[in-house]
Amino acid sequence: MSTPAAEKEPMSPASGPAHTGSEDMTLNVDPNTLTVDDLYDKDKYDLETMDNKLVFQLLQCGPEGLTQSEAEARIEKFGPNKLPEKKVNPLFLFLSFMWNPLSWVMEAAAIVAIALSNGQGMPPDWQDFVGIVLLLLGNSCIGYYEERGAGKAVEALMAALAPQCKVKRNGNWETMEAANLVPGDIISIGIGDVVPADSRMVVSNNVKIDQAALTGESLPVGKEPGDEVFSGSTVKQGEAEAVVIGTGLNTFFGRAAALVAGANEGLGHLQQVLAKI
């Protein structure tokens, strides 16, 4: 039998089945030519499940975080860690639903009804005119209501994002705007903190995360080194350090917000019915 001391010795690569081989895994990729689309293509690199060592290698970072110059270069490449805001004047938004081929036909019909439908000194066809105008206004009101609803849903999602975070830059911890985070940053999270970006746990001290709003899980979930944490989730217990793997729209939260924002694109049901008429 082997001694207890011998049992605690790390196995060599030649030891056989117990060796996972993750220590020797490398990625054959040039980070200088790696595009954002390639990085988030799961068929090429699955940052959510690959070994942490490969994540560090792919993102060209380490436990000491990034330097300020590296972070500035990456924010130019990946963009800020926030969802795009589209400010639209409410009046222009409402009027936009009257400026499309379907509305042009209705507007032309209203003009014909009041100006050309009756000749020989007969009074204009006010009934048809009023009916067409009311239908046009109703169509615009419904479209405006749906569009504003989608905009408010996105605003509510954005309000749940962390405004600030604790990040390691130049080897030192500092508090900064979460919008300045980039993939490869090392962040620190603790009780009550909102996770500022999709990350992989590096150090975990009895951490539990509430991610019910994103995944529907009713209870906080325990997280260990190597596990993923989502932007917008809340730390309910413990402290941890994690490496950022996704920011902005390239997060679970960002993709959900993009789906909500695009939910009402295209013709609504009433507009489809009017188009058929």
Characterization of this structure:
This protein is 38% helix and 17% strand. The protein starts with a helix and ends with a helix. Strands 1, 2, 3, 4, 5, 6 and 7 form a 7-stranded antiparallel beta sheet that branches. The protein has 277 residues and is an alpha+beta fold. Mean pLDDT is 79; it is low at 1-23.
Order of helices and strands: HHHHHHHEEEEHEEEHH
Q: What does the radius of gyration come to? A: 28 Å
Amount of helix: 25-40%
Taken from the alpha-carbon principal axes, the silhouette is: elongated
Structural class: alpha+beta
Largest beta-sheet details:
7 strands, antiparallel
**Rounded mean pLDDT score:** 79
What portion of residues belong to β-strands? 15-25%
Tell how many strands the DSSP assignment holds. 7
| Terminal residue distance | 87 Å
Low-confidence stretches: 1-23
H/I helix tally: 10
Which characteristics define this entry?
17% strand; single chain; disordered N terminus; 38% helix; alpha+beta; elongated; seven-stranded antiparallel sheet; 7 strands; 277 residues
Q: Layout of helices and strands, plus pairs?
A:
Layout (H helix, E strand, L loop, with lengths): L3 H4 L28 H4 L12 H8 L8 H11 L11 H7 L4 H15 L10 H34 L4 E6 L2 E6 L8 E4 L8 E13 L1 H4 L5 E3 L4 E2 L4 E13 L5 H10 L7 H8 L1
Antiparallel strand pairs: 1-2, 1-3, 3-7, 4-5, 4-6, 4-7
Helix pairs in contact: 5-7, 6-7, 7-9
Offer a quick outline of the entry.
The protein is α+β, with helices and mostly antiparallel strands and 277 residues long.
